[in-house]
What does this fold into?
Amino acid sequence: MRGKKQIACLLSLLFIVSAITVIPKLSASGQAGAADDPSAHYFYDQLPEAAKPFYSAMEQMNQKGIFKTGTDSYELTGKNNLISQETAAAYMGGNGNILALYGAARDAFYMDHPDIFYVDFSNLTVRVTSDKNSKYHVTLGAGRTQNYYTKGFSNQDDVESALKEFNAVVEQLVAEASALTDEEGKYRTAEQVKYVHDYLTQHTSYRLENECTKGNEGFIRTAYGSLVRHEGVCEAYTRAMKTVLDRMNIPCIMVQGTYQHSEDVFELHIWNYVKIDGQWYVVDATMDDPISKNPSASGIDGYESTEYLLAGETKMNEHHMPSGVLSEAKYEFRYPLLSYDDFGESFQS
It folds into this structure.
């Protein structure tokens, strides 16, 4: 690998599951992936049935614009009918393993939805309450924090403004990549992936919190950080890649694990798998965008490569070690099998 860098992903969800808040009973007085892209819900499809209501609630919060408020909650019981009173009662009584189920659902949702950059999912909390009529309520909301915004957002107007910028960049990239024409000896889908990969490596500077432009600290793990603020760690590159490819209906998932720099140096890392012509390949834009010793004033660092553009299992096994356990929820997800070989020598530098 050229231009070795340290990777401090520290994924936004590394993913400490919020403590459940159980409130005693009161007294008597008292923006997705495309619908036809199966990878858009790749992690959802692996969840146990009991965890899926929590994922569905987050899906509704996204679709209804609730997440944009940063504070509004969503009830899974009652009229929304995602969780029954019987199940809620079990959760209230300490049965049902709600923390593990919710944690698995939150991990899956976070991996499936890279474009929701304005929510800090570690601040989204599940709560179980009961009322004076002995009805149970299971809700998702801010819980113990003032809001569940990503650092850098304070109100819905901030979110709407950022979304306008973000979607403009994504739509431009989708249009430009989609406009690529078939060329003899080249595979169009692979060329489209390469176009997005090259854009990210050429327009994003790898930066840690203590190195980034003031005001970007909260964004460096988001697709917004990469595509709009042009700074980020591995998670920003990876989430940006999936965001764009999702909208192009090119199957793409995020993969969490470690990168081995040397015999005894391992760093948390996250990268993409992309499916082309029935085979899965590695795309690691972060490792293809090493930091130069003398970053230019423009913020584009140079030394970009295509070493990990549509690489196969043989190449990945040199340094990448995936882990399906994404958080303290301990639920283990599975990743697809990779092609043994790289997609094509034309993509390797």
About this structure: The chain has eight helices and eleven strands. Helices lie at 52-63, 85-92, 98-112, 156-178, 188-203, 223-227, 234-247, 313-316.
